[in-house]
Amino acid sequence: MGELRRAIARGQDERRTQDRFLSTLVIAAAIIAAVRLAREDISTPSPRLLSTVADSVSLAKMILKRVVGQG
Predict the structure, then answer these.
(1) At residue 41, what are phi and psi to the nearest 5 degrees?
(2) Cα–Cα distances in Å, from 3 out to 10, 12, 16, 24?
(3) How far is it, in rounded angstroms, from Cα 31 to Cα 17?
(4) How confident is the model over 32-41, as pLDDT tens digits?
(5) CA–CA dist 4, 24 (Å, integer)
(6) Mind listing the pLDDT tens digit for each residue in 2-22?
(7) How many CB atoms lie under 10 A from the CB of residue 2?
(8) Is residue 45's pLDDT more than 80?
(9) Which of 1, 30, 32, 48 has its CA 20 to 30 A from that of 23?
(10) Are 20 and 68 in contact (CB under 8 A)?
(11) Do residues 25 and 57 make contact, with C-beta atoms less than 8 angstroms apart?
């Protein structure tokens, strides 16, 4: 019974860590996109806006992997 509780606790710890990295990724991508789009009109979705956001997410993922040591 103790092993099951430890396994559940370990799973919960891993999930919290994953959630923390995901929120870090979202914040980083938002900052990158905001800097790149500082002087752009972002009131309506456009191909340029969507492309910049996608590129920002990719860049944030790359940075996070590098910082964590997985890349």
Answers:
(1) -85, 115
(2) 10, 14, 20, 32
(3) 21
(4) 999 999 988 8
(5) 30
(6) 787 887 778 887 788 777 888
(7) 6
(8) yes
(9) 48
(10) no
(11) yes
